[in-house]
Here is the input.
Amino acid sequence: MNPTRILVATDFSEPSKVALDYAIAFAKQLGAKLTVLHVCEVKPLAYDGIVVPVELMVALRDAAEQSMKDLCATYAKNGVELASIVRDGSPWQVIESVADEIGADIVVLGTHGRHGIAHALIGSVAEKVIRTSKRPVLTVRTKEKK
Here is the structure.
């Protein structure tokens, strides 16, 4: 089965850019449509009673929207049909939801290659997507810079 719809998630990091390069190469070879997704997530704060100001949420969302526009403008010259989506929520859940919504045949994710205590403390969106996805997931690993 040749994928016709590819979803690539980005957090605008270097591993995400490398994953997008892979996704673009696949989309070109297969004539597939490519959707780039960014999920805005605000981690819970450590202290009870602290509320994240609406202004901060709006600023984060605006920054994500602008970063997505810049990213898509940079990659649009590659001859691949490129759509973009910015959503709020838990990244691994939103990735699966959007994959269902657009009918993605495959999900492409960059991963930092963390392990040990860094992985335990930070977690891995890619790992959660791999474990829960109903479709193939391609992870593109880059080594964490020290």
Remarks:
- The radius of gyration is 16 Å.
- Residues 118-122 have pLDDT under 50 and may be disordered.
